[in-house]
Amino acid sequence: MDLNGIERLIAEMTLAEKLGQMTMSPAGSAQTGPVRGEATTEAVRAGAVGSLLNIWGREATERFQKLAVEETRLGIPLFFGVDVLHGHRTVFPIPLAEAGAFDPDLWERTAREAAREAAADGADLTFAPMLDIARDPRWGRMAEGPGEDPLVGARFAAAKVRGFQGGDLAAPASLAATAKHFCCGGAALAGREYAAADLSERAVHEIYLPPFRAAVDAGCAAIMSAFNSVGGVPMTAHVPLLRAWLREKLGFDGVIMSDYAAIEELIDHGVAADRTEAAALALKAGVDIDMVSNVYFSVLPDAVSRGLARIEDIDAAARRILILKMRLGLFDDPYRRTKEARKNSEAAKKLALDAARRAITLLTNDGILPLKENIRRIAVVGPLADAREEMVGPWTLAADPRQCTSILEGLRAALPDREIVHAQGVTIKDDDVSGVGAARALCEDADAVILCVGEAARMSGEAASRAHPGLPGRQRELAEAVLSTGRPVVALLSSGRPLIVPWLAERARALVATWFLGAGAGEAIAEVLIGRFNPTGRLPVTWPRAVGQIPIFFAERPAARPANPTDPFTSKYIDVANEPLFPFGHGLSYAEVKLGNLRLDREEFSAGEKIAVAVEARNLSDRPAQETVFFFARDRVAAAAPPVLELKGWAKVELEPRQTKKLSLTLSAEELSGLDSALEWRLEPGDFDIFAGLSADRRFLLSARLRCR
Ligand code: GLC
Q1: 3-state secondary structure of 417
Q2: Residue 246 has pLDDT above 90, yes or no
Q3: 32 C-alpha vs ligand 1 centroid, how far in Å?
Q4: Is residue 335 part of a domain?
Q5: Nearest alpha carbon to residue 53 among 337, 287, 240, 289
Q6: Of 527, 549, 571, at which residue does a domain stop?
Q7: Whose CB has fewer CB within 10 Å in the chain, the N or C terminal residue?
Q8: Distances (CA, A) of 505 to 354, 362, 500
Q9: What is the DSSP letter of 487?
Q10: Chosen domain end from 327, 353, 382
């Protein structure tokens, strides 16, 4: 099939057949939204469905494909979409955790492996990567994305698109990537799921669009519009951003699909009086595929006859969908992906373990970690201690949660010569505290306590906003009881978001963000706790000290009166410090690295030139170190108030004991541009500061001044 063949096909198709191609229906066992009508064999046979979601497995997908190819008038193959966010059969760490590895190569490799497994299960497209920049931990979907920073988001986007799509979209092990959710869901009012986002156009372009530009530049095959509205315009009907910016300015010619039932939900948004108006608005905005609401198929003919929708737009949508199917190789061989049934390879499990190790972030440590030889009796306590099925995290559909090792299992396997005792104490979210006493008693004579607390896997991800993002249920009572024994407590946080636990950070001997790490969870956590793996994870989000600080992030614009502790009339709270509990980029290791000697190769630069930035990293310890060094910039004066810090890159370094190495970063002048009043990226003359640091904590950044002519 080629483009001429596509044109011939379109010329032959009836309106109903075109609208059928524009219809994606649920067909499988996964429920990723409100229950809606499932695709029926009659609908597929009638050509009323062009793609299916939430279905996988060779037999199930081939049955529907056979129907479409052999029993419809034109034999146009279906494509199958599945949510493959962090693994398909083999579970990798949740994206927020994986982002903390700050390693695009790892991000690409896990996507490649996940694509291989999902394609073998009949998937042609994944509804991933999720690229929502998020700065509000009340929003549960922070778990699914790359964190708070647009540059991290952009690099994450490109790596995931490369990983999912590979070099050839038609290859049996490749999936079409769907960059989602376009855009600004992370700015939903008060972190509440599906709520409206009201923010400046400048913020939309500075913060939320860069990952999608990167996904388009990396060749992503599809984009999913978000549920939320932006400035009162629902994304599923957002002509300026979907048509003008995405299609016309960026030249994106792939498929745009709505999110689950989002076209019909234009009625709930109050911008459409009925399904016909909703369909017309979405089509006009350039949405090609109606996911689940079946509005296109049922009422677009009426919209056309009422002059609300144009046949040309329907043809354009159908064309883009048929071209996607052609690029996926489905016309040449509709069964190409399921032919080579590939099982969970040992390589996938090994990769999952490696990714898990590198996602673990050591937040505090007074030296209790790594656990020493004299720690003989270890009490492993808490509802996340022996909870392998929670380790999978919020977005796994086809994976068997039993593939994960629990923290308790990991520790027992790693320390066979120690006495390891266990008590759950409380459940994750119930009110029962009857087990606290026994758990406390178990800790009384322990040499160390590993306190395993946090969220259940489904307490983050979609439809999981939390107004009190601390420890759910009665876990705090358990923690207080364990802490009151006076025994050394190492607290592990399993979560899909930063949990607001300043009291625990204060009193535990060490605090570790273990997120949801997937198949290798227990083993990786044990390796870090005993020092077999030196923790290297760094925070991709700012970790608040209080809910009242949210939204909190490092790239904030300057306040009118920057905080000054000695002057009450400056920007600060009277009851909480301004600083987060842990800054973006924070993460400890068992070594100690210091930065020094930040140097720029020039004092002045002009557009088109490059700036070489160099800094030295010195390992002060007697053990090897792996460090991530961050480079920031600040434009001192610009047309719009420039953020006090913007991430411009990072570098990873391996250091032998006592070794010093020079790290360098080359910055193009254009990377120091800012949005002018017309929201175009422009380099403004004047002074810039360049910074290097081990996190966004401005108290410890090295800086150098630079002038743009
Ligand atoms: C869900 C999610 C989206 C997912 C889609 C299909 O509602 O918002 O991320 O890809 O529906 O499952």
Answers
A1: coil
A2: yes
A3: 6
A4: no
A5: 289
A6: 549
A7: C
A8: 27, 11, 10
A9: S
A10: 327
Tokens of 118: 């999902």
Q: What is the mean pLDDT of residues 476-499?
A: 98
pLDDT tens-digit series, residues 600-649: 999 999 999 999 999 999 999 999 999 999 999 999 999 999 999 999 99
**Sheet architecture: strand order including 625-635:** 604-605, 702-708, 686-693, 625-635, 646-655
For the stretch 429-457, pLDDT in tens is 999 999 999 999 999 999 999 999 999 99
Asked if the model's pLDDT at residue 150 lies above 70, the reply is: yes
Residues 251 and 397 in one domain: no
Helix axes 150-165, 210-217, angle to 10 degrees: 30
626 occurs within a structural domain: yes
581 belongs to a structural domain: no
* Distance from Cα 544 to the centre of ligand 1, integer Å: 28
Same domain for 484 and 602, yes or no, is: no
- pLDDT tier, 416 (very low <50, low <70, confident <90, very high otherwise): very high
296 plus 207 within the same structural domain: yes
Number of independent structural domains in the chain? 3
97 closest CA partner among 536, 601, 709, 547 = 536
Active-site residue, 259 included: yes
d(C-alpha 111, C-alpha 133), whole Å: 19
HSE, CB side, 13 Å, CA atoms: give it for residue 82. 30
Considering Cα of 480, then 485, then 491, then 494, what sign does the dihedral take? negative
Q: Are 176 and 81 within one domain?
A: yes
| 224: nearest Cα among 309, 282, 269, 140 | 282
CATH number, residue 203: 3.20.20.300
- Shared domain for 352 and 323, answered yes or no, is no
pLDDT at 341: 61
* Residues 15 and 129 both lie in one domain: yes
Q: Put residue 57 in one of left, alpha, beta given phi > 0 → left and psi -120 to 50 → alpha.
A: left
The domain spanning residue 399 has which CATH number? 3.40.50.1700
Give the C-alpha separation, 535 to 627, whole Å: 10
- Claim to verify: residue 438 and residue 534 sit in the same structural domain: yes
Residue 680: give its domain's CATH number: 2.60.40.10
Helix (H/G/I), strand (E/B), else coil: 378:
strand
Pocket test for ligand 1, best of 259, 290, 395, 397 (most atoms within 8 A of CB): 259
Q: Mapping DSSP to helix (H, G, I), strand (E, B) and coil, where does residue 497 land?
A: coil
What are the respective helix, strand and coil percentages of the chain, to the nearest 5?
Answer: 35, 20, 45
For residue 528, being part of any structural domain is answered with yes
Is 611 in the same domain as 528? Answer: no
554 lines ligand 1 (CB under 6 A): no
What pTM was estimated for this model as a whole? 0.98
Q: Give the domain range for residue 613.
A: 593-708
C-alpha 260 – ligand 1 centre gap (Å): 6
Residue 340's pLDDT band (boundaries 50, 70, 90)?
Answer: low
Ligand 1 centre to CA of 394 (Å) is 12
From 103, 259, 354, 635, active-site residue: 259
